[in-house]
Amino acid sequence: MDGKPRVEDLLGAVPITVAELRGAVGRFEGDTAAMVRASIATAERAFAELDACDGVIDAAGVRGEEVARRLRELLAREAREEVAAELAALDKIAEEVRRSSATLRLLNQVLGRETVVEDDVPAAKVPVLHEAQLPKVPSVYGDEAEYADLLGVAGRGEELAPRRELAHRERLSAVAAHLVALVQEVAKTGFADARFAHASLREAHAAHALWLRCLEQRRRDLGR
User: Fold this and answer.
1) CA distance 218 to 69
2) What whole-number distance in Å separates Cα of residue 193 and Cα of residue 134?
Protein backbone atom coordinates (compact mmCIF):
# COMPACT_ATOMS: atom_id res chain seq x y z
CA MET A 1 0.00 0.00 0.00
CA ASP A 2 1.34 3.45 -0.92
CA GLY A 3 -0.97 5.24 1.51
CA LYS A 4 -2.96 6.99 -1.23
CA PRO A 5 -6.76 6.73 -1.02
CA ARG A 6 -8.32 4.30 -3.48
CA VAL A 7 -11.27 5.28 -5.62
CA GLU A 8 -13.22 2.43 -4.02
CA ASP A 9 -12.58 3.94 -0.58
CA LEU A 10 -13.77 7.35 -1.79
CA LEU A 11 -16.94 5.82 -3.18
CA GLY A 12 -17.60 4.16 0.13
CA ALA A 13 -16.98 7.31 2.09
CA VAL A 14 -19.12 9.51 -0.17
CA PRO A 15 -22.44 7.80 -0.88
CA ILE A 16 -23.55 9.13 -4.27
CA THR A 17 -25.29 7.52 -7.19
CA VAL A 18 -23.91 7.49 -10.72
CA ALA A 19 -26.73 9.80 -11.83
CA GLU A 20 -25.96 12.27 -9.04
CA LEU A 21 -22.25 12.22 -9.81
CA ARG A 22 -22.90 12.71 -13.52
CA GLY A 23 -25.09 15.67 -12.68
CA ALA A 24 -22.33 17.12 -10.51
CA VAL A 25 -19.50 16.81 -13.03
CA GLY A 26 -21.48 17.18 -16.25
CA ARG A 27 -22.05 14.71 -19.05
CA PHE A 28 -19.51 11.93 -18.67
CA GLU A 29 -19.46 8.59 -20.48
CA GLY A 30 -17.98 6.14 -18.04
CA ASP A 31 -18.58 4.23 -14.82
CA THR A 32 -18.61 5.75 -11.37
CA ALA A 33 -14.96 4.98 -10.66
CA ALA A 34 -13.88 6.64 -13.92
CA MET A 35 -15.90 9.74 -13.09
CA VAL A 36 -14.34 9.97 -9.64
CA ARG A 37 -10.88 9.59 -11.11
CA ALA A 38 -11.63 12.34 -13.62
CA SER A 39 -12.96 14.58 -10.85
CA ILE A 40 -9.85 14.01 -8.75
CA ALA A 41 -7.58 14.75 -11.70
CA THR A 42 -9.52 17.94 -12.42
CA ALA A 43 -9.23 19.04 -8.79
CA GLU A 44 -5.50 18.32 -8.82
CA ARG A 45 -5.10 20.44 -11.94
CA ALA A 46 -7.14 23.22 -10.33
CA PHE A 47 -4.96 23.28 -7.22
CA ALA A 48 -1.81 23.15 -9.34
CA GLU A 49 -3.11 26.15 -11.29
CA LEU A 50 -3.85 27.95 -8.01
CA ASP A 51 -0.25 27.40 -6.92
CA ALA A 52 1.00 28.64 -10.29
CA CYS A 53 -1.09 31.81 -10.03
CA ASP A 54 0.16 32.47 -6.51
CA GLY A 55 3.69 31.97 -7.84
CA VAL A 56 3.15 34.61 -10.52
CA ILE A 57 2.00 37.14 -7.92
CA ASP A 58 4.90 36.34 -5.55
CA ALA A 59 7.41 36.63 -8.39
CA ALA A 60 5.85 39.92 -9.52
CA GLY A 61 6.71 41.52 -6.20
CA VAL A 62 10.35 40.49 -6.50
CA ARG A 63 10.51 41.63 -10.12
CA GLY A 64 8.91 44.95 -9.19
CA GLU A 65 11.52 45.56 -6.50
CA GLU A 66 14.27 44.83 -9.03
CA VAL A 67 12.72 47.33 -11.45
CA ALA A 68 12.61 49.96 -8.68
CA ARG A 69 16.30 49.39 -7.97
CA ARG A 70 17.23 49.69 -11.65
CA LEU A 71 15.05 52.76 -12.07
CA ARG A 72 16.85 54.55 -9.26
CA GLU A 73 20.17 53.99 -11.03
CA LEU A 74 18.84 54.81 -14.51
CA LEU A 75 17.13 58.01 -13.39
CA ALA A 76 20.35 59.15 -11.73
CA ARG A 77 22.20 58.53 -15.01
CA GLU A 78 19.35 60.16 -16.96
CA ALA A 79 19.16 57.10 -19.21
CA ARG A 80 15.94 58.06 -20.99
CA GLU A 81 15.44 55.01 -23.19
CA GLU A 82 16.29 52.55 -20.43
CA VAL A 83 13.84 54.22 -18.04
CA ALA A 84 11.08 53.92 -20.63
CA ALA A 85 11.93 50.23 -21.12
CA GLU A 86 11.66 49.54 -17.38
CA LEU A 87 8.22 51.16 -17.27
CA ALA A 88 7.13 48.99 -20.19
CA ALA A 89 8.37 45.95 -18.24
CA LEU A 90 6.22 47.04 -15.28
CA ASP A 91 3.15 47.19 -17.53
CA LYS A 92 3.88 43.64 -18.66
CA ILE A 93 4.25 42.40 -15.08
CA ALA A 94 0.96 44.02 -14.10
CA GLU A 95 -0.83 42.39 -17.04
CA GLU A 96 0.54 38.96 -16.11
CA VAL A 97 -0.71 39.41 -12.54
CA ARG A 98 -4.08 40.65 -13.78
CA ARG A 99 -4.59 37.47 -15.79
CA SER A 100 -3.40 35.27 -12.91
CA SER A 101 -5.69 37.06 -10.45
CA ALA A 102 -8.66 36.54 -12.77
CA THR A 103 -7.84 32.83 -12.94
CA LEU A 104 -7.53 32.69 -9.15
CA ARG A 105 -10.96 34.23 -8.69
CA LEU A 106 -12.52 31.81 -11.15
CA LEU A 107 -10.90 28.73 -9.61
CA ASN A 108 -11.84 29.79 -6.10
CA GLN A 109 -15.45 30.21 -7.22
CA VAL A 110 -15.42 26.74 -8.78
CA LEU A 111 -13.93 25.30 -5.60
CA GLY A 112 -16.54 27.07 -3.49
CA ARG A 113 -14.05 29.25 -1.66
CA GLU A 114 -15.00 32.66 -0.34
CA THR A 115 -13.06 35.45 -1.97
CA VAL A 116 -12.84 39.14 -1.20
CA VAL A 117 -14.59 41.24 -3.83
CA GLU A 118 -12.28 44.10 -4.76
CA ASP A 119 -15.15 46.59 -5.01
CA ASP A 120 -16.04 45.90 -1.36
CA VAL A 121 -12.62 47.11 -0.19
CA PRO A 122 -11.67 50.80 -0.34
CA ALA A 123 -8.95 51.38 -2.91
CA ALA A 124 -5.56 52.37 -1.53
CA LYS A 125 -4.68 55.98 -2.27
CA VAL A 126 -1.86 56.64 -4.73
CA PRO A 127 0.20 59.82 -4.16
CA VAL A 128 0.20 62.24 -7.09
CA LEU A 129 2.95 64.71 -7.95
CA HIS A 130 2.11 67.86 -9.92
CA GLU A 131 4.63 70.16 -11.55
CA ALA A 132 3.35 73.04 -9.44
CA GLN A 133 4.63 71.21 -6.35
CA LEU A 134 8.23 71.24 -7.60
CA PRO A 135 10.76 73.93 -6.63
CA LYS A 136 10.50 77.04 -8.74
CA VAL A 137 13.34 77.93 -11.09
CA PRO A 138 14.52 81.53 -10.52
CA SER A 139 14.16 83.77 -13.55
CA VAL A 140 15.39 87.27 -14.24
CA TYR A 141 12.10 87.95 -15.99
CA GLY A 142 10.24 87.19 -12.80
CA ASP A 143 12.03 89.90 -10.84
CA GLU A 144 10.27 93.12 -10.06
CA ALA A 145 13.42 95.09 -10.84
CA GLU A 146 13.73 96.63 -14.26
CA TYR A 147 16.95 96.56 -16.25
CA ALA A 148 17.94 99.36 -18.56
CA ASP A 149 19.81 97.21 -21.03
CA LEU A 150 20.66 93.64 -22.02
CA LEU A 151 23.88 93.77 -20.02
CA GLY A 152 21.85 94.17 -16.88
CA VAL A 153 19.72 91.17 -17.76
CA ALA A 154 22.83 89.11 -18.55
CA GLY A 155 24.43 90.10 -15.27
CA ARG A 156 21.36 89.09 -13.34
CA GLY A 157 21.31 85.78 -15.24
CA GLU A 158 24.88 85.02 -14.19
CA GLU A 159 24.03 85.91 -10.62
CA LEU A 160 21.09 83.50 -10.61
CA ALA A 161 22.91 80.68 -12.41
CA PRO A 162 23.88 78.67 -9.28
CA ARG A 163 20.33 78.91 -7.90
CA ARG A 164 18.84 77.91 -11.24
CA GLU A 165 21.11 74.89 -11.48
CA LEU A 166 20.21 73.84 -7.93
CA ALA A 167 16.49 74.25 -8.64
CA HIS A 168 16.68 72.03 -11.73
CA ARG A 169 18.61 69.41 -9.80
CA GLU A 170 16.06 69.43 -6.98
CA ARG A 171 13.16 69.17 -9.44
CA LEU A 172 14.65 66.16 -11.19
CA SER A 173 15.52 64.53 -7.87
CA ALA A 174 11.98 65.00 -6.53
CA VAL A 175 10.35 63.47 -9.60
CA ALA A 176 12.79 60.55 -9.67
CA ALA A 177 12.20 59.80 -5.98
CA HIS A 178 8.44 59.92 -6.53
CA LEU A 179 8.65 57.52 -9.46
CA VAL A 180 10.80 55.01 -7.59
CA ALA A 181 8.54 55.19 -4.51
CA LEU A 182 5.49 54.39 -6.66
CA VAL A 183 7.13 51.27 -8.04
CA GLN A 184 8.31 50.16 -4.61
CA GLU A 185 4.81 50.47 -3.13
CA VAL A 186 3.08 48.55 -5.90
CA ALA A 187 5.80 45.88 -5.76
CA LYS A 188 4.98 45.31 -2.07
CA THR A 189 1.49 44.15 -3.07
CA GLY A 190 2.78 41.91 -5.85
CA PHE A 191 0.53 43.95 -8.20
CA ALA A 192 -2.35 41.83 -6.85
CA ASP A 193 -4.60 44.82 -6.06
CA ALA A 194 -5.66 45.61 -9.64
CA ARG A 195 -7.03 49.07 -8.87
CA PHE A 196 -3.95 50.12 -6.89
CA ALA A 197 -1.63 48.69 -9.53
CA HIS A 198 -3.47 50.47 -12.34
CA ALA A 199 -3.49 53.81 -10.52
CA SER A 200 0.16 53.46 -9.49
CA LEU A 201 1.36 52.66 -13.01
CA ARG A 202 -0.74 55.46 -14.45
CA GLU A 203 0.91 57.89 -12.04
CA ALA A 204 4.32 56.33 -12.78
CA HIS A 205 3.87 57.11 -16.48
CA ALA A 206 2.74 60.64 -15.59
CA ALA A 207 5.83 61.06 -13.40
CA HIS A 208 8.00 59.80 -16.24
CA ALA A 209 6.50 62.39 -18.57
CA LEU A 210 7.11 65.09 -15.93
CA TRP A 211 10.72 63.92 -15.53
CA LEU A 212 11.26 64.26 -19.28
CA ARG A 213 9.78 67.79 -19.20
CA CYS A 214 12.13 68.73 -16.38
CA LEU A 215 15.09 67.48 -18.40
CA GLU A 216 13.99 69.56 -21.38
CA GLN A 217 13.45 72.65 -19.22
CA ARG A 218 16.95 72.26 -17.79
CA ARG A 219 18.37 71.93 -21.29
CA ARG A 220 16.68 75.17 -22.34
CA ASP A 221 17.80 77.04 -19.23
CA LEU A 222 21.31 75.67 -18.80
CA GLY A 223 22.13 74.34 -22.26
CA ARG A 224 22.55 70.74 -21.05
Assistant:
1) 25
2) 29
Compute how many other C-beta atoms are within 10 angstroms of the C-beta atom of residue 15.
7
Rounded to the nearest 5 degrees, what angle is found at the Cα of 112, between the Cα atoms of 109 and 116? 60
pTM assigned to the model: 0.69
195: CB partners within 8 A, 6+ apart? 118, 123, 124
Task: Give the number of other CB atoms < 10 A from CB of residue 173.
Answer: 15
At residue 55, does pLDDT exceed 50? yes
Helical (H) or strand (E) element with 84: helix 80-110
Q: Identify the CA nearest to 65 among candidates 185, 155, 146.
A: 185
pLDDT confidence of residue 108: 66
Output DSSP code: residue 122.
Answer: P
Indicate if the pLDDT at residue 141 is higher than 80.
no
Using a pLDDT cut of 70, give the percent of the chain over it: 59
Give the number of residues written for the chain. 224
- The whole-angstrom separation of Cα 110 and Cα 100 is 15
Confidence (pLDDT) at 78: 96
